Amino acid sequence: MDLDFSQGDLAFRDEVRAFIAQAFDDDMRAHMGQSKNAHIDKTGQVRWWKRLNEKGWMATDWPAEYGGTGWTHAQKYIFDMEMALAGAPDTSNMGVRMCAPVVMAFGTDEQKKQHLPKILSSEVWWCQGYSEPGSGSDLASLSMKAERDGDHYVLNGSKIWTTYAQHADWMFCLVRTANEAIKQMGISFLLLDMTTPGISIVPLPTLDGPPDGEQEINQVFFENVRVPVANRIGEENQGWTYAKYLLQFERGNAYAPGLTNMLAKVKMIAGAERSDGGQRMLDDTDFRRKLTETQIKVDALNATELRMFAARTAGEAMGAASSMFKLEGSQAQQAITELALEAAGLYAQPFVRDTFAEIRGERNEPRAGPDYAATVAPMYFNYRKTSIYAGSNEIQHNIIAKMVLGL
Ligand SMILES: Cc1cc2nc3c(=O)[nH]c(=O)nc-3n(C[C@H](O)[C@H](O)[C@H](O)COP(=O)(O)OP(=O)(O)OC[C@H]3O[C@@H](n4cnc5c(N)ncnc54)[C@H](O)[C@@H]3O)c2cc1C
Prior knowledge:
- The chain is an alpha+beta fold.
- It folds into 3 domains: 7-92, Butyryl-Coa Dehydrogenase, subunit A, domain 1; 126-238, Butyryl-CoA Dehydrogenase, subunit A, domain 2, CATH 2.40.110; 253-403, Butyryl-CoA Dehydrogenase, subunit A, domain 3 (Up-down Bundle), CATH 1.20.140.
- 45% of the residues lie in helices and 13% in strands.
- The chain is built from 13 helices and 8 strands.
- The protein has helices spanning 7-23, 26-32, 42-54, 73-86, 94-106, 109-120, 239-250, 256-272, 285-313, 321-344, 352-359, 376-382, 393-403, and strands spanning 126-129, 145-149, 152-160, 170-176, 187-193, 199-204, 217-228, 232-233.
- The strands form 2 sheets. It has a 4-stranded mixed beta sheet with strand order 1-4-5-8. A 4-stranded antiparallel beta sheet has the order 2-3-7-6, with no helix packed on it.
- A hairpin with a 2-residue loop joins strand 2 and strand 3 (152-160).
- Helix 1 (7-23) runs parallel beside helix 4, helix 8 (256-272) packs antiparallel against helix 9 and helix 8 packs parallel to helix 10 (321-344).
- The longest helix has 29 residues, at 285-313.
- It binds flavin-adenine dinucleotide (FAD).
- Flavin-adenine dinucleotide is lined by residues 127-131, 136-137, 161-163, 217, 385, 388-389, 391-392, 394-395, 398.
């Protein structure tokens, strides 16, 4: 196993840095400085993706024949690390990361032609319609009905926790097309246009901010929504196979780059803030111990992810490792947001809505405390999600118990 970067990799790193210096402009940097979850508004986000696409860097995991970069795992790692260290917006989305691999593997030529170019160019924003009220961890119990009526399915029911449904032009969606004894058997995988009559979106406010502006999750209702049968991926009632195939891409990302960036911010705050004893938080013994423990976890995760890249380059499968990364990565994310909260102290206290009102210019009085403290509490609340979404951490424990321990 060789963990050193080659000369070619180092030259590539310089190219990524040069791109970031030019493309990640001051306006985007200002917006990202106020973001609790590495997102900017839809216009800014799409502008960023289009810049990546112009450079040919939008689809880092796609094969070159579909417009992907065809990068090695090392290049992908370098790209992710440099983007995270710069605090750049998300470099990927659900269309690129989740929907496209399914369309490539199981879609018809027509579907590939219709969707892949628009995913690449960010002309179409996709959302994921998997979870339903009562069907999250036990996803196969989903009950949103799709009944056949000639060349269409008629959909009735609802999807929940749908991230950025309010931005989405299309949804990839699981529906029930048959009631078989084995519940996985009667599910189909559909692609649907969000402007189809009968779809309504209700925002779900979260603890981390106002219900407008940074709205993240929603419930989507379907009332007699007609979706062409031609929009089905693969075979009717075989959707579970495609759904599971997609999930490996949802959990496949490296955590260490983002964690490294988050820790750097904590160190910056702890260098500026004082503890009760009057010394810098960074010099407070108890805080240093916690910071060091977290740094060691992040370094260990980084080394493990690099080891996994080397193994994947040699052709090995991820297996249960993606569950392990999800567990360790999400726990480290939450630990770091707690450290940030502790380091910022009282400056992290203002009610979140007030903080954002001031940032958006809706209030004249200045907020108490330095700018870097503004997103600390929203981020702490926002990151409670990481141990729930993409399969809760308990479910990842179950997967590891089954696949690794054979229990
Ligand atoms: C911020 C956020 C964004 C999301 N975005 C999307 C999206 O865009 N599209 C989408 O389809 N879904 C999305 N989800 C939904 C997410 O996939 C589900 O929340 C998740 O799968 C858990 O399902 P649930 O919420 O129904 O909880 P439940 O499944 O009801 O679980 C409740 C608790 O019970 C535990 N539990 C359940 N079953 C077991 C078991 N067998 N063994 C041990 N413990 C168990 C869980 O770990 C959890 O702690 C999002 C969720 C969040 C929080």
